[in-house]
Amino acid sequence: MRFYFDSWAEFFQMGGHGPYVWACFLITWAVLAYLLISPIVRQRRWLRRQAALQRRASMARTQGQAPPRQT
Amino acid sequence: MASWQWFHRLGSPRWFYEKTGGWLPWLTVIALVLLVLGTVWGLAFSPEDFKQGNSYRIIYIHVPAAFLALAGYYIMAISGAVGLIWRMKLAFMVMKSAAPIGAALTFVSLVTGAIWGKPTWGTWWAWDARITSMLILFFLYLGIMALQSAFQNREAADKASAILALVGTVNIPIIYKSVDWWYTLHQPATLKLTSAPTIHSSMLYPLLTMVVAFYVFYVVVLLLYTRNEILRRESRTGWVRELVAKEGER
Fold it and tell me: B42, B89, B157, B188: most buried by Cβ count inside 10 Å?
């Protein structure tokens, strides 16, 4: 197994097909990155908001008020 | 009844959440390593196609994305059926999670197909049987996502989506057979279970690497989405409240 192209310039041009090939790989990697990162970010945000709600509810309980409604 | 125990445990969102938490880091590393390996191998180390030149390198993402677009539909429809038949909560969560992932991968296979079509067929788009049936698959995924948010009632949303997913399975054999039934523009399958692949090993190995990479990556993302859904739906249970109290501090 060896590097198929003779130079880096040829690698990027791919005999004129470069823009098509590179566009495909970039779009795919962008979509895959979004699929991987977005649920992690969403979960972290949800946990933080939920924790704040729980703290406020327990504080309200100790002060004898009705706890805020969970959504 | 011991043999059924795993089935019931599998139906427990808590058990699923705790079990998969340990697998995720490993699976993520495996998926990313395989993806990078397959991409570099396919782009730089495999020879060019004697007919299509270098544009054929799009196969290394187009085919795996299309595979997973279809496999994702099986997973969505089967978990929908399991949810309907055994009223398993977790199955509906998996079904809901599979929809946006499947839509994204179908989108990738359509877009890469269009970009591949330009230098190969001279057109971005054609109403070829394979392309049209994949477009229908994309709309089915979007339909499930729309149904999920259209209902106020969670149970109604799950049932309606599961039924749409099951009805939509008629499209799957059409997609598989489209390149044989209507021999128009799209080339026939490169990889088949029943016969030898029509591709040289120098191109086959990077392609197989990418297929495996996409499968593992799909599992990782499906787990992430499902775990998210579990927390949201079980937010009132004791174990999630405990988890929130622990994780939310960070």
Answer: B42
Q: Could you tell me which chain A residue has the CA closest to the CA of B221? A: A36
Cβ-based contacts of B25 with chain A (< 8 Å):
none
Phi, psi at residue B88, to the nearest 5°?
-90, 120
From the CB of residue B110, how many other CB atoms can be counted at a distance below 10 Å? 20
C-alpha distances out from residue B103 to A7, A43, A59, B45, Å:
38, 21, 43, 31
How much is the average pLDDT of B183-191? 75
Buried b (16+ CB within 10 A) or exposed e, B175-193: beebbeeeeebbeeeeeee
ipTM: 0.89
- Pick among B50, B57, B111 to test the A interface (most A CBs inside 10 A): B57
Statement: residue A32 has pLDDT above 80: yes
* Residues B96-113: tens digit of each pLDDT: 999 999 999 999 999 999
Cβ–Cβ < 8 Å for B35, B210: yes
Please give the distance of CA B190 from its chain centroid, rounded to a whole number: 19
